[in-house]
Amino acid sequence: MQICRVKGNVWATRKEETLKGQKFLIVTRIDENQSEIGPPFVAVDNIGAGVGELVIVTAGSSARKASDESLPVDAAVVGIIDSMDVDLSS
Amino acid sequence: MQICRVKGNVWATRKEETLKGQKFLIVTRIDENQSEIGPPFVAVDNIGAGVGELVIVTAGSSARKASDESLPVDAAVVGIIDSMDVDLSS
Amino acid sequence: MQICRVKGNVWATRKEETLKGQKFLIVTRIDENQSEIGPPFVAVDNIGAGVGELVIVTAGSSARKASDESLPVDAAVVGIIDSMDVDLSS
Amino acid sequence: MQICRVKGNVWATRKEETLKGQKFLIVTRIDENQSEIGPPFVAVDNIGAGVGELVIVTAGSSARKASDESLPVDAAVVGIIDSMDVDLSS
Amino acid sequence: MQICRVKGNVWATRKEETLKGQKFLIVTRIDENQSEIGPPFVAVDNIGAGVGELVIVTAGSSARKASDESLPVDAAVVGIIDSMDVDLSS
Q1: Which domain holds residue A33?
Q2: How many domains is chain C built from?
Q3: Size of interface A-B (CB pairs under 8 A)
Q4: Residue C61, SS3?
Q5: Complex ipTM, two decimals?
Q6: Which of A39, C3, C42, E62 has the fewest CB atoms in 10 Å of its CB?
Q7: How far apart are CA E61 and CA E41, in angstroms?
Q8: B contacts of C83 (beta carbons < 8 Å)
Protein backbone atom coordinates (compact mmCIF):
# COMPACT_ATOMS: atom_id res chain seq x y z
CA MET A 1 0.00 0.00 0.00
CA GLN A 2 1.19 3.51 -0.70
CA ILE A 3 1.64 6.27 1.85
CA CYS A 4 -0.15 9.35 0.53
CA ARG A 5 -1.21 12.82 1.57
CA VAL A 6 -4.79 13.90 0.94
CA LYS A 7 -4.70 16.96 -1.32
CA GLY A 8 -8.31 17.73 -2.12
CA ASN A 9 -11.51 16.71 -3.78
CA VAL A 10 -12.74 16.07 -7.28
CA TRP A 11 -16.30 16.27 -8.60
CA ALA A 12 -17.74 14.48 -11.59
CA THR A 13 -21.45 14.71 -12.28
CA ARG A 14 -21.29 12.51 -15.35
CA LYS A 15 -19.90 9.20 -14.16
CA GLU A 16 -20.43 5.49 -14.04
CA GLU A 17 -23.83 4.84 -12.49
CA THR A 18 -22.32 2.55 -9.86
CA LEU A 19 -20.04 5.34 -8.60
CA LYS A 20 -22.90 7.64 -7.53
CA GLY A 21 -22.62 8.47 -3.85
CA GLN A 22 -18.96 7.52 -3.62
CA LYS A 23 -16.55 10.05 -2.13
CA PHE A 24 -13.44 10.71 -4.20
CA LEU A 25 -10.24 12.23 -2.84
CA ILE A 26 -7.21 13.55 -4.66
CA VAL A 27 -4.09 12.10 -3.07
CA THR A 28 -0.35 12.25 -3.75
CA ARG A 29 2.22 9.66 -2.77
CA ILE A 30 4.97 10.78 -0.38
CA ASP A 31 8.53 9.61 0.17
CA GLU A 32 10.49 8.98 3.38
CA ASN A 33 10.80 12.74 3.95
CA GLN A 34 7.07 13.20 3.45
CA SER A 35 7.80 15.06 0.23
CA GLU A 36 5.20 14.51 -2.44
CA ILE A 37 6.29 12.41 -5.39
CA GLY A 38 4.57 11.69 -8.65
CA PRO A 39 1.33 13.14 -9.93
CA PRO A 40 -1.84 13.29 -7.87
CA PHE A 41 -4.42 10.57 -8.40
CA VAL A 42 -7.92 9.78 -7.25
CA ALA A 43 -8.88 7.32 -4.50
CA VAL A 44 -12.28 6.37 -3.17
CA ASP A 45 -12.69 7.01 0.56
CA ASN A 46 -15.06 5.30 2.95
CA ILE A 47 -13.36 6.13 6.23
CA GLY A 48 -13.54 9.90 6.32
CA ALA A 49 -10.03 11.14 5.58
CA GLY A 50 -9.51 14.91 5.45
CA VAL A 51 -7.26 17.21 3.45
CA GLY A 52 -3.70 17.24 4.79
CA GLU A 53 -3.91 13.84 6.50
CA LEU A 54 -1.51 11.02 5.70
CA VAL A 55 -3.32 7.91 4.57
CA ILE A 56 -2.68 4.34 3.46
CA VAL A 57 -3.94 3.74 -0.08
CA THR A 58 -4.54 0.31 -1.57
CA ALA A 59 -4.29 0.06 -5.36
CA GLY A 60 -5.50 -2.34 -8.00
CA SER A 61 -8.19 -4.96 -7.67
CA SER A 62 -7.82 -4.93 -3.87
CA ALA A 63 -9.28 -1.41 -3.81
CA ARG A 64 -12.60 -3.03 -4.57
CA LYS A 65 -12.37 -4.95 -1.30
CA ALA A 66 -12.50 -1.59 0.51
CA SER A 67 -15.66 -0.48 -1.24
CA ASP A 68 -17.76 -2.86 -3.26
CA GLU A 69 -16.52 -5.66 -5.47
CA SER A 70 -18.60 -4.36 -8.36
CA LEU A 71 -17.21 -0.80 -8.41
CA PRO A 72 -14.80 0.34 -11.14
CA VAL A 73 -12.21 1.73 -8.70
CA ASP A 74 -8.47 1.02 -8.60
CA ALA A 75 -7.45 2.98 -5.48
CA ALA A 76 -9.00 3.27 -2.01
CA VAL A 77 -8.06 4.91 1.26
CA VAL A 78 -7.91 2.06 3.78
CA GLY A 79 -6.36 3.79 6.80
CA ILE A 80 -5.57 7.19 8.28
CA ILE A 81 -2.04 7.22 9.67
CA ASP A 82 -1.56 8.07 13.35
CA SER A 83 2.19 7.64 13.40
CA MET A 84 5.11 6.02 11.67
CA ASP A 85 8.29 4.65 13.15
CA VAL A 86 11.00 4.34 10.50
CA ASP A 87 14.56 3.15 11.02
CA LEU A 88 16.96 5.49 9.23
CA SER A 89 20.15 3.69 10.26
CA SER A 90 20.18 0.95 7.64
CA MET B 1 -7.72 6.40 -10.58
CA GLN B 2 -5.71 8.63 -12.84
CA ILE B 3 -6.62 12.15 -13.88
CA CYS B 4 -6.30 12.32 -17.66
CA ARG B 5 -7.05 14.60 -20.59
CA VAL B 6 -8.86 13.17 -23.59
CA LYS B 7 -6.61 13.63 -26.61
CA GLY B 8 -8.35 11.88 -29.46
CA ASN B 9 -9.60 8.70 -30.98
CA VAL B 10 -8.15 5.48 -32.32
CA TRP B 11 -9.63 3.10 -34.85
CA ALA B 12 -8.89 -0.58 -35.23
CA THR B 13 -10.93 -2.62 -37.68
CA ARG B 14 -9.12 -5.85 -36.91
CA LYS B 15 -9.64 -6.43 -33.21
CA GLU B 16 -10.84 -8.89 -30.61
CA GLU B 17 -14.39 -9.88 -31.50
CA THR B 18 -15.64 -8.88 -28.06
CA LEU B 19 -14.40 -5.31 -28.53
CA LYS B 20 -16.66 -4.58 -31.53
CA GLY B 21 -18.87 -1.59 -30.83
CA GLN B 22 -16.70 -0.30 -28.01
CA LYS B 23 -15.56 3.33 -28.14
CA PHE B 24 -11.86 3.88 -27.57
CA LEU B 25 -10.30 7.17 -26.54
CA ILE B 26 -6.69 8.24 -26.48
CA VAL B 27 -5.94 9.85 -23.12
CA THR B 28 -2.86 11.26 -21.38
CA ARG B 29 -2.30 11.53 -17.66
CA ILE B 30 -1.87 15.05 -16.23
CA ASP B 31 -0.04 16.35 -13.17
CA GLU B 32 -1.06 18.96 -10.58
CA ASN B 33 -0.49 21.75 -13.11
CA GLN B 34 -2.60 19.95 -15.69
CA SER B 35 0.53 19.36 -17.76
CA GLU B 36 0.49 16.09 -19.62
CA ILE B 37 2.88 13.45 -18.34
CA GLY B 38 3.81 10.12 -19.81
CA PRO B 39 2.79 8.66 -23.13
CA PRO B 40 -0.81 8.57 -24.34
CA PHE B 41 -2.76 5.37 -23.84
CA VAL B 42 -6.13 3.96 -24.80
CA ALA B 43 -9.19 3.77 -22.56
CA VAL B 44 -12.65 2.43 -23.27
CA ASP B 45 -15.40 5.01 -22.78
CA ASN B 46 -19.06 4.39 -22.03
CA ILE B 47 -20.01 7.79 -20.65
CA GLY B 48 -19.42 10.05 -23.63
CA ALA B 49 -16.25 11.99 -22.87
CA GLY B 50 -15.04 14.43 -25.53
CA VAL B 51 -11.63 15.63 -26.70
CA GLY B 52 -10.13 18.18 -24.31
CA GLU B 53 -12.13 17.09 -21.27
CA LEU B 54 -10.51 16.01 -18.03
CA VAL B 55 -11.58 12.53 -16.99
CA ILE B 56 -11.08 9.96 -14.27
CA VAL B 57 -9.60 6.74 -15.64
CA THR B 58 -9.67 3.42 -13.82
CA ALA B 59 -6.90 0.97 -14.72
CA GLY B 60 -6.36 -2.74 -14.40
CA SER B 61 -8.99 -5.39 -13.76
CA SER B 62 -11.37 -2.77 -12.35
CA ALA B 63 -11.72 -1.28 -15.83
CA ARG B 64 -13.78 -4.33 -16.69
CA LYS B 65 -16.30 -3.29 -14.02
CA ALA B 66 -16.98 -0.15 -16.09
CA SER B 67 -17.70 -2.09 -19.26
CA ASP B 68 -18.21 -5.81 -19.25
CA GLU B 69 -16.38 -8.34 -17.11
CA SER B 70 -15.52 -10.38 -20.20
CA LEU B 71 -13.82 -7.60 -22.18
CA PRO B 72 -10.03 -7.51 -22.60
CA VAL B 73 -9.68 -3.89 -21.47
CA ASP B 74 -7.32 -2.49 -18.81
CA ALA B 75 -8.41 1.17 -18.74
CA ALA B 76 -11.81 2.83 -18.71
CA VAL B 77 -13.14 6.37 -18.40
CA VAL B 78 -15.37 6.32 -15.32
CA GLY B 79 -16.06 10.03 -14.80
CA ILE B 80 -15.88 13.41 -16.51
CA ILE B 81 -14.41 15.98 -14.12
CA ASP B 82 -16.50 19.08 -13.34
CA SER B 83 -14.04 20.63 -10.90
CA MET B 84 -11.14 19.90 -8.60
CA ASP B 85 -10.26 21.51 -5.31
CA VAL B 86 -6.61 20.93 -4.44
CA ASP B 87 -4.76 22.20 -1.39
CA LEU B 88 -1.39 23.60 -2.46
CA SER B 89 -0.28 24.70 0.99
CA SER B 90 1.02 21.38 2.30
CA MET C 1 -4.34 -0.13 -23.15
CA GLN C 2 -0.93 0.74 -24.49
CA ILE C 3 -0.11 1.78 -28.04
CA CYS C 4 2.77 -0.38 -29.23
CA ARG C 5 4.75 -1.22 -32.34
CA VAL C 6 5.32 -4.87 -33.22
CA LYS C 7 9.07 -5.45 -33.30
CA GLY C 8 9.51 -9.16 -33.84
CA ASN C 9 9.07 -12.65 -32.58
CA VAL C 10 10.36 -14.78 -29.74
CA TRP C 11 10.64 -18.53 -29.54
CA ALA C 12 10.67 -20.67 -26.43
CA THR C 13 10.57 -24.43 -26.78
CA ARG C 14 10.61 -25.06 -23.05
CA LYS C 15 7.56 -23.30 -21.67
CA GLU C 16 4.44 -23.69 -19.63
CA GLU C 17 2.41 -26.54 -21.12
CA THR C 18 -0.65 -24.32 -21.46
CA LEU C 19 1.25 -21.86 -23.68
CA LYS C 20 1.95 -24.40 -26.44
CA GLY C 21 0.55 -23.18 -29.75
CA GLN C 22 0.32 -19.56 -28.64
CA LYS C 23 1.91 -16.91 -30.85
CA PHE C 24 4.19 -14.47 -29.01
CA LEU C 25 5.19 -11.08 -30.35
CA ILE C 26 7.85 -8.67 -29.15
CA VAL C 27 6.34 -5.21 -28.90
CA THR C 28 7.51 -1.78 -27.71
CA ARG C 29 5.36 1.02 -26.41
CA ILE C 30 5.36 4.27 -28.40
CA ASP C 31 4.76 7.88 -27.41
CA GLU C 32 2.76 10.64 -29.13
CA ASN C 33 5.49 10.99 -31.77
CA GLN C 34 5.46 7.26 -32.39
CA SER C 35 8.95 7.05 -30.88
CA GLU C 36 9.58 3.85 -29.00
CA ILE C 37 9.80 4.18 -25.24
CA GLY C 38 10.78 1.67 -22.64
CA PRO C 39 12.11 -1.82 -23.14
CA PRO C 40 10.45 -4.34 -25.46
CA PHE C 41 8.13 -6.89 -23.94
CA VAL C 42 6.19 -9.95 -25.01
CA ALA C 43 2.48 -10.08 -25.85
CA VAL C 44 0.34 -12.98 -26.96
CA ASP C 45 -1.38 -12.38 -30.30
CA ASN C 46 -4.54 -14.00 -31.59
CA ILE C 47 -5.48 -11.50 -34.29
CA GLY C 48 -2.54 -11.76 -36.67
CA ALA C 49 -0.48 -8.60 -36.15
CA GLY C 50 2.68 -8.25 -38.22
CA VAL C 51 6.08 -6.66 -37.64
CA GLY C 52 5.96 -2.86 -37.98
CA GLU C 53 2.24 -2.54 -37.29
CA LEU C 54 0.88 -0.37 -34.50
CA VAL C 55 -1.28 -2.32 -32.10
CA ILE C 56 -3.35 -1.91 -28.96
CA VAL C 57 -2.02 -4.04 -26.11
CA THR C 58 -4.01 -4.93 -23.01
CA ALA C 59 -1.98 -5.69 -19.87
CA GLY C 60 -2.59 -7.50 -16.62
CA SER C 61 -5.37 -9.92 -15.84
CA SER C 62 -7.46 -8.55 -18.71
CA ALA C 63 -4.96 -10.04 -21.17
CA ARG C 64 -6.40 -13.41 -20.26
CA LYS C 65 -9.79 -12.27 -21.58
CA ALA C 66 -8.17 -11.98 -25.03
CA SER C 67 -6.84 -15.52 -24.96
CA ASP C 68 -7.95 -18.03 -22.39
CA GLU C 69 -8.68 -17.35 -18.74
CA SER C 70 -6.35 -20.16 -17.70
CA LEU C 71 -3.24 -18.93 -19.53
CA PRO C 72 -0.32 -17.36 -17.65
CA VAL C 73 -0.16 -14.27 -19.87
CA ASP C 74 -0.10 -10.61 -18.78
CA ALA C 75 -0.17 -8.85 -22.17
CA ALA C 76 -2.19 -9.43 -25.32
CA VAL C 77 -2.61 -7.70 -28.68
CA VAL C 78 -6.30 -6.81 -28.87
CA GLY C 79 -6.39 -4.55 -31.93
CA ILE C 80 -4.39 -3.50 -34.99
CA ILE C 81 -4.53 0.27 -35.38
CA ASP C 82 -5.88 1.67 -38.65
CA SER C 83 -5.60 5.33 -37.69
CA MET C 84 -5.35 7.72 -34.78
CA ASP C 85 -6.72 11.24 -34.49
CA VAL C 86 -4.94 13.16 -31.72
CA ASP C 87 -5.55 16.76 -30.71
CA LEU C 88 -2.21 18.51 -30.28
CA SER C 89 -3.65 21.91 -29.38
CA SER C 90 -4.29 21.34 -25.69
CA MET D 1 8.14 -10.45 -6.05
CA GLN D 2 10.21 -7.54 -4.86
CA ILE D 3 13.24 -7.73 -2.59
CA CYS D 4 12.73 -5.21 0.20
CA ARG D 5 14.21 -4.11 3.50
CA VAL D 6 11.92 -3.69 6.49
CA LYS D 7 12.18 -0.08 7.65
CA GLY D 8 9.62 0.30 10.38
CA ASN D 9 6.02 0.31 11.45
CA VAL D 10 2.93 2.34 10.76
CA TRP D 11 -0.14 2.78 12.94
CA ALA D 12 -3.63 3.69 11.84
CA THR D 13 -6.45 3.61 14.36
CA ARG D 14 -9.08 4.66 11.86
CA LYS D 15 -9.02 2.03 9.15
CA GLU D 16 -11.08 -0.43 7.19
CA GLU D 17 -12.86 -2.71 9.65
CA THR D 18 -11.45 -5.81 7.98
CA LEU D 19 -7.87 -4.63 8.59
CA LYS D 20 -8.17 -4.62 12.38
CA GLY D 21 -5.55 -6.86 13.92
CA GLN D 22 -3.35 -6.91 10.84
CA LYS D 23 0.32 -6.02 11.26
CA PHE D 24 1.62 -3.42 8.83
CA LEU D 25 5.29 -2.89 8.01
CA ILE D 26 6.99 -0.08 6.14
CA VAL D 27 9.34 -1.56 3.55
CA THR D 28 11.60 -0.19 0.80
CA ARG D 29 12.68 -2.00 -2.31
CA ILE D 30 16.42 -2.61 -2.74
CA ASP D 31 18.61 -3.03 -5.82
CA GLU D 32 21.44 -5.48 -6.55
CA ASN D 33 23.75 -3.57 -4.18
CA GLN D 34 21.12 -3.66 -1.44
CA SER D 35 20.71 0.10 -1.80
CA GLU D 36 17.20 1.29 -1.19
CA ILE D 37 15.34 2.50 -4.26
CA GLY D 38 12.01 4.21 -4.56
CA PRO D 39 9.76 5.44 -1.80
CA PRO D 40 8.79 3.31 1.20
CA PHE D 41 5.45 1.53 1.08
CA VAL D 42 3.29 -0.54 3.40
CA ALA D 43 2.99 -4.32 3.39
CA VAL D 44 0.95 -6.61 5.58
CA ASP D 45 3.03 -9.17 7.47
CA ASN D 46 1.92 -12.53 8.81
CA ILE D 47 5.30 -14.20 9.20
CA GLY D 48 6.99 -12.00 11.77
CA ALA D 49 9.58 -9.98 9.89
CA GLY D 50 11.63 -7.48 11.87
CA VAL D 51 13.17 -4.10 11.15
CA GLY D 52 16.36 -4.39 9.09
CA GLU D 53 15.56 -7.80 7.64
CA LEU D 54 15.44 -8.43 3.90
CA VAL D 55 12.10 -9.83 2.81
CA ILE D 56 10.24 -11.01 -0.28
CA VAL D 57 7.15 -8.91 -0.93
CA THR D 58 4.29 -9.97 -3.19
CA ALA D 59 2.25 -7.16 -4.73
CA GLY D 60 -1.17 -6.83 -6.28
CA SER D 61 -4.07 -9.23 -5.97
CA SER D 62 -1.72 -12.04 -4.99
CA ALA D 63 -1.02 -10.26 -1.69
CA ARG D 64 -4.50 -11.32 -0.65
CA LYS D 65 -3.44 -14.95 -1.00
CA ALA D 66 -0.92 -14.33 1.82
CA SER D 67 -3.53 -12.94 4.17
CA ASP D 68 -7.22 -13.25 3.48
CA GLU D 69 -8.91 -13.01 0.10
CA SER D 70 -11.33 -10.41 1.44
CA LEU D 71 -8.73 -7.94 2.74
CA PRO D 72 -8.03 -4.67 0.91
CA VAL D 73 -4.26 -5.18 0.77
CA ASP D 74 -1.96 -4.93 -2.25
CA ALA D 75 1.39 -5.93 -0.71
CA ALA D 76 2.37 -8.72 1.67
CA VAL D 77 5.60 -10.05 3.13
CA VAL D 78 5.76 -13.69 2.02
CA GLY D 79 9.31 -14.64 3.02
CA ILE D 80 12.27 -13.56 5.13
CA ILE D 81 15.48 -13.91 3.12
CA ASP D 82 18.25 -16.10 4.54
CA SER D 83 20.64 -15.67 1.65
CA MET D 84 20.92 -14.74 -2.00
CA ASP D 85 23.30 -16.07 -4.62
CA VAL D 86 23.55 -13.69 -7.56
CA ASP D 87 25.73 -14.11 -10.66
CA LEU D 88 27.49 -10.82 -11.39
CA SER D 89 29.43 -12.05 -14.45
CA SER D 90 26.68 -11.69 -17.05
CA MET E 1 5.46 -10.53 -20.35
CA GLN E 2 8.91 -9.26 -19.55
CA ILE E 3 12.15 -10.51 -21.07
CA CYS E 4 14.53 -11.22 -18.20
CA ARG E 5 17.89 -12.79 -17.46
CA VAL E 6 18.17 -15.29 -14.62
CA LYS E 7 20.69 -13.93 -12.13
CA GLY E 8 20.63 -16.32 -9.20
CA ASN E 9 18.75 -17.86 -6.35
CA VAL E 10 17.22 -16.72 -3.11
CA TRP E 11 16.52 -18.74 0.00
CA ALA E 12 13.93 -18.04 2.68
CA THR E 13 13.35 -20.57 5.39
CA ARG E 14 10.64 -18.55 7.11
CA LYS E 15 7.96 -18.06 4.51
CA GLU E 16 4.29 -18.46 3.74
CA GLU E 17 3.36 -22.10 4.32
CA THR E 18 1.96 -22.42 0.82
CA LEU E 19 5.29 -21.44 -0.74
CA LYS E 20 7.18 -24.42 0.72
CA GLY E 21 8.77 -26.45 -2.06
CA GLN E 22 8.57 -23.66 -4.62
CA LYS E 23 11.74 -22.71 -6.48
CA PHE E 24 12.52 -18.99 -6.52
CA LEU E 25 14.83 -17.31 -9.00
CA ILE E 26 16.30 -13.82 -9.00
CA VAL E 27 15.78 -12.26 -12.42
CA THR E 28 16.46 -8.87 -14.01
CA ARG E 29 14.63 -7.35 -16.93
CA ILE E 30 16.66 -6.65 -20.07
CA ASP E 31 16.29 -4.10 -22.85
CA GLU E 32 16.67 -4.46 -26.63
CA ASN E 33 20.45 -4.65 -26.24
CA GLN E 34 20.12 -7.34 -23.59
CA SER E 35 21.42 -4.86 -21.01
CA GLU E 36 19.90 -5.30 -17.61
CA ILE E 37 17.49 -2.59 -16.52
CA GLY E 38 15.85 -1.99 -13.22
CA PRO E 39 16.42 -3.81 -9.95
CA PRO E 40 16.39 -7.60 -9.69
CA PHE E 41 13.19 -9.27 -8.52
CA VAL E 42 12.02 -12.74 -7.59
CA ALA E 43 10.03 -15.09 -9.81
CA VAL E 44 8.75 -18.57 -9.13
CA ASP E 45 10.02 -21.16 -11.61
CA ASN E 46 8.42 -24.46 -12.54
CA ILE E 47 10.16 -25.09 -15.84
CA GLY E 48 13.78 -25.40 -14.78
CA ALA E 49 15.47 -22.18 -15.91
CA GLY E 50 19.17 -21.79 -15.11
CA VAL E 51 21.41 -18.86 -14.26
CA GLY E 52 22.32 -16.82 -17.34
CA GLU E 53 19.37 -17.94 -19.44
CA LEU E 54 16.91 -15.48 -20.96
CA VAL E 55 13.36 -16.15 -19.88
CA ILE E 56 9.83 -14.87 -20.32
CA VAL E 57 8.33 -13.72 -17.03
CA THR E 58 4.61 -13.21 -16.44
CA ALA E 59 3.67 -10.71 -13.71
CA GLY E 60 0.63 -10.02 -11.61
CA SER E 61 -2.33 -12.31 -11.03
CA SER E 62 -1.48 -14.30 -14.17
CA ALA E 63 1.65 -15.59 -12.44
CA ARG E 64 -0.66 -17.74 -10.35
CA LYS E 65 -1.83 -19.48 -13.53
CA ALA E 66 1.74 -20.74 -13.98
CA SER E 67 1.92 -22.22 -10.50
CA ASP E 68 -1.15 -22.62 -8.35
CA GLU E 69 -4.07 -20.23 -8.11
CA SER E 70 -3.76 -20.17 -4.31
CA LEU E 71 -0.10 -19.13 -4.14
CA PRO E 72 0.92 -15.59 -3.11
CA VAL E 73 3.19 -15.06 -6.13
CA ASP E 74 3.21 -12.13 -8.55
CA ALA E 75 5.89 -13.23 -11.03
CA ALA E 76 6.58 -16.56 -12.72
CA VAL E 77 8.97 -17.85 -15.36
CA VAL E 78 6.75 -19.18 -18.16
CA GLY E 79 9.28 -19.79 -20.93
CA ILE E 80 13.00 -20.17 -21.62
CA ILE E 81 13.94 -18.19 -24.72
CA ASP E 82 15.58 -20.07 -27.60
CA SER E 83 15.84 -17.10 -29.93
CA MET E 84 14.45 -13.67 -30.70
CA ASP E 85 14.01 -11.99 -34.07
CA VAL E 86 13.68 -8.23 -33.67
CA ASP E 87 13.28 -5.67 -36.46
CA LEU E 88 15.62 -2.76 -35.81
CA SER E 89 14.69 -0.77 -38.93
CA SER E 90 11.54 0.89 -37.65
Answers
A1: 2-80
A2: 1
A3: 106
A4: helix
A5: 0.95
A6: A39
A7: 16
A8: 10-11
